[in-house]
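FAQ

Q: What does a record look like?
A: Structure on top, sequence underneath. For example:
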């Protein structure tokens, strides 16, 4: 049995949730999001809580029960508080600059790299060595931050590159003579 699927999802203050024709819509201070719910589960909205239950006892329904509950919880959290990933830039001469519609990265290549922000994910540069990726969709925020990080992943000898905030890189030993 799913322990995740059994938990009720509390609806925070200021968030409106509606469920019509297998589509759950949530609207909060950070925006509006929708999620198409699988026909293997049933969604009930009662007493400022969202309950997800499975329709049948088959394997597919049990598999989708916890997954749908987690996706709905992420949607409600995203419109209420939003999701955020911080990327730190480590390396001499590496920097980020805000430009209209995105950011410009100088990462030691012969050219600068421009990364455009999408409609559901915003990119902010609070300092030249920090990038903040924000949005209401957890998957989209993670994907955009992963794409930015892949432009110059941290290397294991000096630790230079783009790192997630708080990430530790295990450095390799230098060559011994």
């Amino acid at each position: 049995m799913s322990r995740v699927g059994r938990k009720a999802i509390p609806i925070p203050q200021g968030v409106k949730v509606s469920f019509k024709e297998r589509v759950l819509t949530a609207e909060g201070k950070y925006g509006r999001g929708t999620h198409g719910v699988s026909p293997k589960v049933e969604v009930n909205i009662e007493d400022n809580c969202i309950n997800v239950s499975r329709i049948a006892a088959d394997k597919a329904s049990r598999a989708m029960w916890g997954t749908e509950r987690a996706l709905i919880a992420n949607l409600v959290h995203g419109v209420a508080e939003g999701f955020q990933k911080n990327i730190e830039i480590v390396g001499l001469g590496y920097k980020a600059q805000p430009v209209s519609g995105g950011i410009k990265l100088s990462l030691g290549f012969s050219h600068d790299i421009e990364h455009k922000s999408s409609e559901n994910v915003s990119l902010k540069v609070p300092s030249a060595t920090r990038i903040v990726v924000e949005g209401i969709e957890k998957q989209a925020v993670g994907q955009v931050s992963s794409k930015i990080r892949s432009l110059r992943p941290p290397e294991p000898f000096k630790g230079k590159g783009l790192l997630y905030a708080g990430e530790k890189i295990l450095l390799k030993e230098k060559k011994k003579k």
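Q: Is there anything notable about this one?
A: The mean pLDDT is 92.
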